[in-house]
Amino acid sequence: MLSHSMIRRNFSTVSKNYVNGQWVSSKGDVFFESKNPATQEVVRRVPQTPKSEFDEIVSVAKNTFEEWKNVPLMTRIRYMFEYQRLVNENTEELAKLITHEHGKTLVDSRGDVFRGFEVVESTTSFSSHLLGETLENLASGVDTYSYRHPLGVCAGVAPFNFPAMIPLWMFPVSITCGNTFVLKPSERVGTTTEMLVDLLEKSGVPKGVVNIVNGGKDTVTHICQHPDIKAISFVGSNTAGEYIYKEGSKHGKRVQSNMGAKNHCIVLPDADKEDTLNALIGATFGSTGQRCMALSVTVLVGEAQEWVPELVELGKKLKVGPGHDETVDIAPLNSAEALDRVERLIESGARDGTLLLDGRRPTVEGYPDGNWVGPTVIDNVKPGMECYDEEIFGPVMLILRADTYQEAIDIVNQNKYGNGAAIFTRSGSAARKFQRDIEAGQIGINLPIPVPLPMFSFTGNKASFWGQNNFYGKAGVKFNTQWKTITSRWREESEEVYKVSTAMPTMK
């Protein structure tokens, strides 16, 4: 297995941009700080890239596109075969980096890498997704055929919560389709991105195909407004995602914007009790609740409401601590700002509902300064409460109670978000009603986190997604390509030549 030193000599304490195959220090004099969430140690300083440097990076990507688009598809796919091998072989190294700078548990970090690896793996089958269409002899000597053509320079704005998976949703799909790419990683987790790019370089992908630009909102605005960037992929909060969608669209770009969520799970009384309770605990508190597919709301129907004490007891058994400790279940939140937000929303839930398990400020021996919140359970929550209406993004389970199944469905559908929803039941007819009536885009039946594998697409909807084509799968290919249609005529020598006519041409 490759070590960090074999990939690149070391990781600087100041993030660099990656331009035309070289790591380049920015001349920017404004910096963001990336901190270890368990200790508050400053891990990195991340520069705000000046506009002039940003323009140079896009220019490199634009110039490289003129060559990359002509590289045969099968050659691009072979690069991805090699890249997926390298990512897979370096899973443990990547996972340790993620845990160090993000804070999540090692087991969760490994999953982060693996789900990204699966998307890279799926790009090796793009020869079928990129097939065109043909119809011959539409008229005498006239044929029409369409094929998928790359867009040009595409860009990605990645979030902090999945340092490996989300970038791997973005640039491997785009470059396999023939585009070049400019990626802005989260200011909090840039080291993981650097290793991913070093592995891409080792796979043989030419210089300039993927480039990295650092920064904050100014860089995002540059991406939205630069005329040579044709499409933007984004995953993150609604505040940023709605801005990117509106600003990018205003400047003529395609945008796929995956945003916030409030995923509900309906539990019917006939569900397998042990299976359901264990699934709820894992899906609510896993990754410290910092994932857009976390099951943050449990809707208990009828007699299932009697299971609340057991949910609380299971939550109490989870261990809080630093992510590198493999016995830990709940790692720190990624930032002090996130900690403040989660604590504020727990306080509002305690005021408006019933706080059954309070995870605020647990003591973690040896780590007094970590961003710690333990498992928290708030009962008797209702729509309209602040803790319900806002995305908490922390290890907090909200419990709503419904007398009937239809009441539970109505609760889910009245929520503005539509990323995912789940149901636990033994009833086939109840499950079928759920999959047909629920308005969320990704449905789990006796399965808590229904994130599709990459032969499908990530299909959140409503306020959770703005755009026309979702991430990865066939939708990802559609987003990263455009149709080009050719109608050709080859006249036989015996056929008549065109006669001069100003009438609308028809094919007869």
UniProtKB/TrEMBL annotation:
Keywords: NAD, Oxidoreductase. One of its GO terms (molecular function) is methylmalonate-semialdehyde dehydrogenase (acylating, NAD) activity. Belongs to the aldehyde dehydrogenase family. The keyword NAD applies. GO terms for cellular component: mitochondrion. Signal peptide: none annotated. SUPFAM superfamilies: ALDH-like. One of its GO terms (biological process) is thymine catabolic process. NCBIfam families: MMSDH. InterPro entries: Ald_DH/histidinol_DH, Ald_DH_C, Ald_DH_CS_CYS, Ald_DH_N, Aldehyde_DH_dom, MeMal-semiAld_DH. Residues 23-486 form the Aldehyde dehydrogenase domain. Its EC number is 1.2.1.27. It comes from Euplotes crassus. This is methylmalonate-semialdehyde dehydrogenase (CoA acylating). It is an enzyme of class 1 (oxidoreductase). Pfam families: Aldedh (PF00171). The keyword Metal-binding does not apply. CDD domains: ALDH_F6_MMSDH. It comes from the Eukaryota.
